Amino acid sequence: MLLSGVLSVLLGITGIARDALFGTPPHYEYRFGLTAWGWIHLVIGLALLAASVGILTTRSWGSGAGVALGACSLVTQFMFIPYYPVWSISVMVLDLLAIWALARIAPDLA
């Protein structure tokens, strides 16, 4: 989850600073400006980093927040596939692995 957060923050910074870097699909339902996508990814990435710190320090809210934020990241990466498919699919795999790992933690260990 920490790696997914860092990658989302990098994507967000790139989307904000250089929004002409990504191609824009012509007919896409969830088409926002790339600056807006940059802010979305930046906010989710920072939230993922905070949840990762919560998980690593074994806070009670860490695993629940990690699953919820991992799911949000998964959805936003899915919606970003037409802009940058290889990156989005790679981060989606990381999100799925993190959600799966957090969902398998026994309640008495969390």
From TrEMBL:
Pfam families: DUF7144. Keywords: Membrane, Transmembrane, Transmembrane helix. The chain crosses the membrane at residues 36-56, 63-81. Residues 1-104 form the DUF7144 domain. This is DUF7144 domain-containing protein. The lineage of its organism: Bacteria, Bacillati, Actinomycetota, Actinomycetes, Kitasatosporales.
